[in-house]
Amino acid sequence: MDTQRIQPLPLPLSAEMQETMDRIFPKGLPSPVLYRTVARNEGLFRDMVERRFIGPTGLFDRKTLPRRLRELIILRTCVAAGNDYEFRLHVETISLAMGLTAAQIADISRRRPNEALWNPGEPEVMRLIDGLVASLEVSDTLFADLRGHFDEPTLIEITNLIGLYTGVAMIVAMARPAFDNYGALLGRGKAEAPGSGRGNEPQKGDITNEGSTS
After folding, report:
1. C-alpha 134, offset from chain centre
2. Class of residue 207 by CB neighbours under 10 A (exposed 0-12, middle 13-18, buried 19+)
3. What is the pLDDT of residues 109-151, one digit of tens each?
4. Which residues, at least 6 apart from 71, have a Cβ–Cβ distance to it below 8 Å?
5. Domain residue spans in the chain?
């Protein structure tokens, strides 16, 4: 496993920083390694929490997108950007609570998702994510398909969320945080990330072939 490039704040945290973490992550669990890594820039991290840019369900949750759709967007963006760390963090903590099933979580890592598992419009959102993350492209055909399911303000919000979590992938690629393994702590088992065993060095574009498992 590759060594972390930026070491997170050590545990136990200072009382002040622990209070900040408790606002966005359940008490009684160690804070995520990525949170403690970003908190090395304490001013930035405190601003993110104070301004509610980061909260218990992730980045900039305005409660305007259905929570299952929001979680789908986050996980598919992780897959498209090769962000195994964030994928595992969500799957081991909140993805099921946000309304995704285990079968859907596995399907998110497939190149061609099984449309029978998804609501109308959700496969199109995954295609949007794939195109934006890979090449910043949205075809006219895909845009028309998306508009058949979502209004323009919703598409703007979806695209903004994709951009936010592509940014998270950039931080992970730079810092290489170690996995948290909340599955073991919570008795849920380890989540299998799309990168399938590449430690804490994510690689882009690791959407598995159709029919494979995550």
Report:
1. 16
2. buried
3. 999 999 999 999 999 999 999 999 999 999 999 999 999 999 9
4. 90, 94, 95, 98, 99, 100
5. 15-185
List residues bridging with 110 in a β-sheet.
208
Place of tokens 């959102």: 125
31's tokens: 């804070």
pTM score: 0.89
Tell me which H or E stretch contains 74.
Answer: helix 67-81
What is the average per-residue pLDDT within 179-183? 91
Spell out the residues 6+ positions from residue 23 whose beta carbon is closer than 8 angstroms to its own: 49, 55
Secondary structure tally for the chain: helices H, strands E: 10, 2
* CATH architecture of structural domain 15-185: Up-down Bundle (1.20)
Lowest-pLDDT choice from 32-46, 156-170, 171-185, 188-202: 188-202
